[in-house]
Each structure stands twice: as structure tokens, then as C-alpha cells.
Write a structure and sequence with these properties.
The chain is of the alpha/beta class. The chain has two domains: about 240 residues, 3-Layer(aba) Sandwich (Rossmann fold), CATH 3.40.50.2000; about 170 residues, Rossmann fold, CATH 3.40.50.2000. The chain has 16 helices and 13 strands. The strands form two sheets. Strands 3-2-1-4-5-6-7 form a seven-stranded parallel β-sheet, sandwiched between helices. Helix 12 links the parallel strand 11 and strand 12. It is globular and about 65 Å long. The chain starts with 5 loop residues before the first strand and ends in a 16-residue tail after the last helix. About 45% of the residues are buried.
């Protein structure tokens, strides 16, 4: 087994994009390796608090609490948000990100990349450094056998199943041709690299190994996934310093039945005032206790009934298992914690992969979905009542939780990384990344 290797994990995005790589890094460190997380400067303090090395990689954006709500709203807009994020923030910084990452990988033994950090594949291919790519959610594969559910046009769920894989392949080919990631393609040509495919689709994947960082329970392998894909299981990050509940919340939980937990993660929470207002009213209509995770005191919805409490932040692993139902936005990190907790969930997708994650959770029989535009108290109360009153949801949630607890995503990921470090994959020495190969 390879030991003492320098492993660079390049990621970019919200806490949901950071925490799985922290979980992997902590596992790798426990095995004697030297992991480095290459990401935005704003995460340095968080990483160093866990004793993890940080390497700065642009683009840098302010923490959500320092961003204008208008910017977050643009990013979270279902139809145009992903394109805005990539074309206005990520792609224009491709040269800066590449330069930063080149510095970060000096002396490294392997590079691990995130699907929304397009400089990573460029560095891997140009340097010839062994490179492993990752995906956090099944949507990233754009499988014609498990078609992604977009944050708009939810009706496609039934239509795609009727049209079949052949039509879907044509549809996805058109989509790839229209979304070219032009700044990345142009920079790739400047670097003298061969055309390895659309950077946001097939081009994000390493020809050496892909880690699918979710559970087979959540999404089974599909025939059109790249053959070098390995499912690790969810990589749950548990920060030791975040495990204790605030005294007021602990007292609240200890003195009443399990509450409904309402949360929007670390980004959408900043545009969630309407969400919290409707959530409070829905809980009132049902006569249910509630915990609101509001992210920051500035998001506080005001005076609350005695059977509700608002707290800024609590670790999901401490709170969710004590809920009756969890209501959240469908980010893959929050979704995975909801599944692990063993309680039913109501998912309110905003953008990105959230609709697709909601669909996968619904297929498991543990969750229902209400889209943001229809998130109104009467509808929410109706959906919550079904989750609370129909025993099958709770039963399936417990069964899924048991299955997930038998997995160890970080350990499996570390095993697969060490295989690459040891040259175990048959094609490790045969693969060439650099120009002209």
C-alpha cells in the first residue's frame, strides 16, 4: 500500500462541494498521506482548523453571507443559474485557476478534481500527473438510462422514460453542442492539448479513474457510465468541533416530540425568507414543533411560537436523526445526510442537481417534492402530513439509513486512490495526458 504521498484535492463551490473532500482528506491523512485541499481562499480557516493543508485556487468569491442577495438569486435561478455561475464566474478565471493549481500540484503524487473546477483536467493532462476525477451526484453522468431531471421542465421525468435511450442520446448530443464552455476550450488549445471533449460533460472525466461519491442505494451504475467509474458511497464529513448541539436547541429537543427541521444549506438560505415564512405557517397548520436552520441571525424570521426555534447552524448528523421530517433544498450533501438520518424528507429544489437528487430520493420511497414556485403553506402542510401519517415513508427511511451506515465512503475512496498510487489499475502506465500523445 502506498504511504506518505502528497495528494491534491481540487474542489470549488459551497460547503456541499467542500465537505466530501474534507472527509476524504481526513481519511487519507489517517493513513499517513499528505492531503492538500486546493480551493477558494475563504475556506482556509475552516480547513486549517481541522489540521488540513490549504492551497489557494481562484476564482475567489465572498462567503454567501457577504454576497449581495441579488447575486445568490442569479446563481439559484433554475433556468439560467448554472450557466450564469459558469460563464460569469468560473470560466473567466480559468487561466488564474490553472496557474494556481500548477503551483499546488508541485511535488504531488496524484490530483483529484471536482466537476465544476475545469482547470483540474487541464493541469492533469498537461503535467501527466496521475489524475482522478470525481462526481458528487448522478446528474453529472447525463445517462440516457437514468436521465437527469432539470430544475425546470419537471415533466421530462415521464417523457424521457417514454422516449427511450436513443432519443435521449440525440437530445444530450444537441445540448453538448450548444454548451461549449468556450473560454476553457480556447485555453485548452493555447496549452496545446488535444480535444478531449466538452469540459462540462465528457471532458470533466479522467480516463484513469472516476470516483462517484454517492451510494449505490441512491443511484445504481448505468450502462453508459464511463467504464472507469467506481462508486465509493457518500463521503460524510463529521467535524469534531461541530458535534455538540447549542444548549437552547438541546433543551428544546429534549422537551417535546421530534420536530420538523427546515434547512436550505449554506447558500440558498440567504434567499430563503419566503421559504421560512411558509414553513412556519405550514408547521402551525399541522400543530407541529419546528427547528429552522437560518444560517445567520440576519435571516431570522422574527417572533416565533413557543414550539419553534431558529438557530444559525447545527451539524446535520447531530440534528437530523432527532427530527420527524427534514425539509431541505436537495443539495446532494444535505440529501445524503437526510437519507443517513433515517427520517422522511420533503425536498424543495432550487437549481443545479437538486431536482435530480429529489427524484432519486423519491424513488427510494423516503421523500416527496415541492418545487420552490409552489412552496406555499397549504401545499407544504399537505405534503408534510403525508410524510408524517403514512408509515411506509418512515419505514423506508429507516431501511435506507441502515444500508448507508454499512458503507464507508471516505475509506472506499481512499482505497481506490491508493490503488492508483500503487499502479494497480491495468492502464495506469498506458494513459497519456500531455499534448501530442
Amino acid at each position: 500500500m502506498a504511504n506518505g504521498k502528497r495528494i491534491v484535492l481540487n474542489t470549488w463551490g459551497s460547503f456541499g462541494d467542500l465537505h466530501p473532500y474534507m472527509a476524504m482528506a481526513l481519511e487519507l491523512r489517517a493513513r499517513g498521506h499528505r492531503p492538500v485541499i486546493a480551493t477558494m481562499e475563504m475556506y482556509r480557516e475552516r480547513l486549517e482548523a481541522m489540521g488540513l493543508e490549504h492551497a489557494p485556487v481562484r476564482p475567489n468569491i465572498p462567503q454567501p453571507k457577504e454576497q449581495a442577495p441579488e447575486l445568490i438569486e442569479k446563481i439559484m435561478e433554475p433556468r439560467t443559474g448554472p450557466r450564469f455561475l459558469m460563464e460569469e464566474i468560473v470560466y473567466p478565471a480559468i487561466r488564474d485557476a490553472y496557474a494556481d493549481l500548477l503551483i499546488a500540484v508541485e511535488g504531488a503524487d496524484v490530483l483529484i478534481t471536482h466537476p465544476a473546477a475545469p482547470a483540474g483536467p487541464l493541469v492533469g493532462r498537461k503535467t501527466g500527473l496521475p489524475w482522478i476525477s470525481t462526481v458528487l451526484a448522478p446528474l453529472s453522468f447525463f445517462s440516457v438510462y437514468d436521465p437527469p431531471i432539470p430544475p425546470v421542465m419537471q415533466w421530462t421525468t415521464k417523457v424521457f422514460s417514454l422516449l427511450g435511450p436513443r432519443f435521449l442520446k440525440l437530445f444530450f448530443d444537441v445540448m453538448r453542442s450548444e454548451y461549449k464552455a468556450k473560454p476553457v476550450v480556447e485555453f485548452r488549445a493555447e496549452l496545446g492539448l488535444n480535444d478531449y471533449g466538452n469540459p462540462m460533460f465528457e471532458g470533466q472525466h479522467s480516463p484513469l479513474r472516476i470516483l462517484a461519491m454517492f451510494s449505490k442505494v441512491f443511484a445504481a451504475p448505468q450502462p453508459d457510465w464511463p467504464p472507469q467509474t467506481e462508486i465509493t458511497g457518500f463521503c460524510f464529513y463529521v467535524g469534531n468541533q461541530e458535534s455538540d448541539l447549542p444548549p437552547a436547541l438541546a433543551d428544546f429537543l429534549d422537551n417535546g416530540p421530534p420536530p420538523i427541521v427546515f434547512t436550505l444549506g449554506s447558500s440558498a438560505v440567504w434567499i430563503g425568507r419566503e421559504f421560512f415564512r411558509e414553513s412556519i405557517e405550514a408547521a402551525k397548520q399541522l400543530g407541529q414543533r419546528a427547528v429552522l436552520l437560518i444560517g445567520d441571525e440576519r435571516n431570522h424570521p422574527g417572533t416565533l411560537p413557543a414550539d419553534m426555534i431558529a438557530v444559525e447552524y447545527v451539524s446535520y448528523e447531530s440534528l437530523m436523526p432527532r427530527a420527524s421530517v427534514v425539509v431541505h433544498h436537495g443539495g446532494v450533501g444535505t440529501t445524503s445526510h437526510g437519507l443517513l438520518a433515517g427520517v422522511p424528507t420533503l425536498i424543495v429544489p432550487f437549481a443545479f442537481d437538486q431536482s435530480d437528487n429529489a427524484e432519486h430520493a423519491a424513488r427510494l420511497g423516503v421523500s416527496r417534492t415541492v418545487y420552490r414556485a409552489k412552496y406555499r403553506a397549504p401545499r407544504v402542510a399537505k405534503e408534510l402530513n403525508k410524510l408524517l401519517s403514512e408509515p411506509l415513508y418512515a419505514q423506508r427511511a429507516r431501511e435506507v439509513s441502515v444500508q448507508l451506515k454499512q458503507e464507508n465512503g471516505p475509506a472506499r475512496a481512499a482505497d481506490l486512490i491508493e490503488q492508483v498510487l500503487d499502479g494497480t489499475p491495468n492502464d495506469v502506465e498506458e494513459l497519456a495526458y500531455a499534448s501530442g500523445d
